[in-house]
Amino acid sequence: MNLDQAYLRCEEITSAEARNFSYGIKLLPPPKRRAMCALYAMARRIDDIGDGGEPAPDKLAALAGVRKDVTALAGADRRQGDDPVLVALADVARRFPIPVAALDDLIDGCEMDVHGADYASFDDLVGYCRRVAGSIGRLSLGIYGPTDPERAEPLADALGVALQITNILRDIVEDRDQMGRVYLPAEDRDRFGVAPDLRGPIDGVLALITYEAGRAEEWYDRGLALLPQLDWRSRACTAAMAGIYRRLLGRIQRDPAGVLRGRMSLPGPEKAAVAVRALARGAA
To answer: Which residues constitute the domain of residue 10?
Structure first.
């Protein structure tokens, strides 16, 4: 597999599938942009296995196969072959100090989904969010190159939690009806008198959504302290991605019933405007 072709395939996957993240990734210089596309393509592969329609044992077997690939990438003898995502990611691991083993956390989170994990407390949910989203933040730091990696890691982790809670609120109905998953913690459902399947009473459901959105805001405030540690292009990328999701969270806060009617999203021009402002502010 030609390396340029491998990266091109990862860029195609990112362009087609990363409806929000691609706006930020495009703001990076070419080497970092290619690296982030390779990282996204692998994360997408893992997510697609967890969310696919195959029986649970088949999903778990497929995830175990990806885990072997990740182990090979993390080792000295990095796998090549003809898999474009693995070829590109192996090159990224040679060029950037990414913690490849963090992909194990993402796989762990997807396995939790396959097993149908329930979350008793908000701390339990945060643990899941750290696996499936904080792991991507930690991997991205290896590409961005923060000024203080040790201080930056928990901030990237926190931003991942904020993004994932936003995703959970956006996809409440889809996750419940199509995947059989309810992520909002049992202790919070009980607090607002909401049924385990989130079907009522409606006033309690809306109050629960608003409450969790407020928690997500706190995680954004914490995670965005990462920005000053990044170079201006990496800062713009991160600000654009977080800005798009935070705007979506704002829509959910203004109309919590909207997530019960269908998936909420921002129109393309609005996402582009967020990215342009992030680039201008990053340069300034």
So the answer is: 3-283
- Which CATH number characterizes residue 146's domain? 1.10.600.10
170-187 mean pLDDT: 95
Query: Can you give the pLDDT at residue 280?
Result: 86
Q: Is the pLDDT of residue 81 over 80?
A: no
14: CB partners within 8 A, 6+ apart: 21, 22, 25, 36, 37, 40, 41, 44
Q: How many domains does the chain have?
A: 1
Cis peptide before 154 (omega within 30 of 0): no
CB-based contact 14:40 (threshold 8 Å) = yes
Q: What does the DSSP assignment read for the chain?
A: --HHHHHHHHHHHHHHH-TTHHHHHTTS-HHHHHHHHHHHHHHHHHHHHHHSSS-HHHHHHHHHHHHHHHHHHHSSS---TT-HHHHHHHHHHHHS---TTHHHHHHHHHHHHHHT---SSHHHHHHHHIIIIIHHHHHHHHHH--SSHHHHHHHHHHHHHHHHHHHHHHTHHHIIIII----S-HHHHHHTT--TTS---HHHHHHHHHHHHHHHHHHHHHHGGGGGGS-HHHHHHHHHHHHHHHHHHHHHHH-TTHHHHS-----HHHHHHHHHHHHHHHH-
In 3D, which of 183, 189, 158 has the Cα closest to residue 170? 183
What is the phi/psi pair of residue 20, to 5°?
Answer: -105, -45
* pTM of the predicted model over 0.85: yes
Q: How far apart are CA 169 and CA 166, in angstroms?
A: 5
Q: Tell whether the model's pLDDT for residue 9 goes beyond 80.
A: yes
